[in-house]
Amino acid sequence: MTVALITGGNRGLGRAVAEELAERGMTVVVGARDASAGAEAARQLGKEATSVQLDVTDPASAFYGMVVPAYQSSKAALNNITIALAKALVDTPIKVTSVCPGFVQTDLTPINRDQAPLTAAQAATVVATAAVLPDDAPSGTFIDRNRAVAW
Ligand SMILES: NC(=O)c1ccc[n+]([C@@H]2O[C@H](COP(=O)([O-])OP(=O)(O)OC[C@H]3O[C@@H](n4cnc5c(N)ncnc54)[C@H](OP(=O)(O)O)[C@@H]3O)[C@@H](O)[C@H]2O)c1
Fold first, then answer.
1. Quick one: which of 53, 107, 116, 130 is 20 to 30 A from 93 by CA?
2. Atom 27, ligand 1: which residue's CA is nearest?
3. Which domains does the chain have, with CATH numbers?
4. How many other C-beta atoms lie within 10 A of the C-beta of residue 50?
5. Which of the four pLDDT bands, split at 50, 70 and 90, describes residue 26?
């Protein structure tokens, strides 16, 4: 059984990724800041999905300190974090991959909802691909919907 934990899985891109991975047969755990929103998203997903209350900025969270909001960091900092995490986890089976989903119709900003060309479901495929890389795929890469992007 493969379990996928998706932070921010209650709405937007995370919700679409949860749907995509559930469709691919994974057991999905919806991470959400609001426990009731997470439970409702899991209920709607069906397919034995469950939920967990999870705020990545909570010092009690296992994710605390690992996640840097993209728009608060420079591209270079994001690159550094990806490579540093990949190096720290080199002796484990865990892969670290940064993903550019494209410009997506979510509630991230009003402009996204009005002007983005991609639906969340379309963008979710690139995130899902990063989540199911084969064992021999490299770690510490950056991908978009077409290919690996050069750092
Ligand atoms: N949309 C785009 O075009 C685009 C492009 C590139 C990258 N991204 C990135 O993709 C990610 C998802 O974006 P989106 O477009 O889906 O945005 P969104 O529709 O605004 O959804 C954001 C999600 O993140 C959750 N969240 C916010 N702060 C959190 C925290 N501290 N801990 C855990 N969850 C938290 C939100 O939970 P609540 O429901 O509790 O608020 C919500 O589920 C973001 O990191 C964004 O920067 C998006």
1. 53
2. 8
3. 3-57+67-143 (3.40.50.720)
4. 15
5. very high
